[in-house]
Amino acid sequence: MTATLFEDMAISDRLDQLAAESRGEAVTLGWVLDQLNERAFGLFLLVLALPCCIPFLYGVPQVVALPLMFVSAQILLGRRTPWLPSRLAARSVASKDLHNLADRAGPWLRRIEAISRPRLSLLTRAPLDRIVGLALVLFSASILVPLPGTNTVPGIAVVIVAMGLLQRDGILVILGGLLGTAWIATLLIAGATLASLIKSWMGF
Question: Could you give the number of structural domains in the chain?
Answer without folding.
Answer: 1
